[in-house]
């Protein structure tokens, strides 16, 4: 039985990379099949050339973390694609739950940007050239060797914590960290960066209660 091939994935070129527009009404399995087909057949010419940054647009689809990871894993099979963002047009539901902690896993590689509204617990490493942006706190259970920007909408009470600190740059709200060579003294304990009178400081995570009294957002994490 012959059927017309659905075009559920649209790939557009932009000034500094590619945008993958994913249909938000179809079944997820059909979307994945069309994505794989385009990567392996119709768009091979642009997906086997030089390094390309990719932004993924999910439309109004409410994709689970597992579904997003499946999309990312398929795209990562093409070595010249660097995933910069994966976004949906869902209503700004996250902004009403900024005190909730989102848990994500993986590796933020060079050229990739992980953007999140709220507080983020990231289980993995941030490589040099990788960036994490959050409106709230950033907790990295791994190495931070790239750039982290917490409280990027102006929240000066946000913090950045990592198991291993060696960032290229830290930002909290509008304050930029001191030069990277000042982070060279490394402790085995998890540390966090915070603002004190407009200056960025670093301390052991065990001393966070001195900085923040309202610890309710950490319960259950």
UniProtKB/TrEMBL annotation:
Gene3D superfamilies the UniProt entry points to: 2.160.20.70, 3.30.160.540
InterPro entries: CAP/MinC_C (IPR016098), MinC (IPR013033), MinC_C_sf (IPR036145), MinC_N_1 (IPR055219), Septum_form_inhib_MinC_C (IPR005526)
Domain called Septum formation inhibitor MinC C-terminal: residue spans: 104-202
Record key words, sorted: Cell cycle, Cell division, Septation
GO biological process, one term: cell morphogenesis
Limits of the Septum site-determining protein MinC N-terminal domain: 9-86
Annotated Pfam families: MinC_C, MinC_N_1
PANTHER family noted in UniProt: SEPTUM SITE-DETERMINING PROTEIN MINC
Name of the protein in its database record: Probable septum site-determining protein MinC
């Amino acid at each position: 039985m012959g059927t017309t091939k659905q075009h559920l994935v649209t790939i557009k070129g932009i000034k500094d990379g590619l945008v993958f527009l994913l249909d938000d009404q179809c079944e997820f399995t059909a979307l994945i099949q069309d994505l794989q087909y385009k990567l392996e057949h119709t768009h091979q010419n642009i997906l086997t050339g030089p390094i390309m940054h990719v932004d993924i647009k999910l439309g109004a689809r409410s994709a689970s973390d597992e579904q997003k990871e499946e999309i990312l894993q398929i795209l990562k099979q093409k070595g010249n694609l660097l995933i910069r963002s994966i976004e949906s047009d869902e209503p700004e539901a996250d902004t009403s739950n900024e005190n909730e902690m989102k848990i994500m896993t993986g590796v933020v590689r060079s050229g990739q940007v992980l953007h999140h509204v709220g507080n983020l617990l990231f289980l993995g490493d941030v490589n040099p050239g990788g960036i994490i942006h959050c409106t709230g706190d950033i907790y990295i259970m791994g190495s931070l060797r790239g750039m982290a920007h917490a409280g990027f909408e102006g929240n000066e009470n946000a913090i950045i914590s990592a198991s291993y600190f060696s960032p290229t740059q830290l930002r909290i709200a509008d304050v930029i960290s001191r030069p990277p060579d000042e982070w060279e003294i490394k402790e085995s304990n998890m540390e966090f960066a915070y603002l004190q009178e407009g200056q960025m400081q670093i301390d052991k995570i065990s001393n966070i209660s001195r900085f923040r009294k309202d610890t309710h957002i950490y319960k259950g994490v």
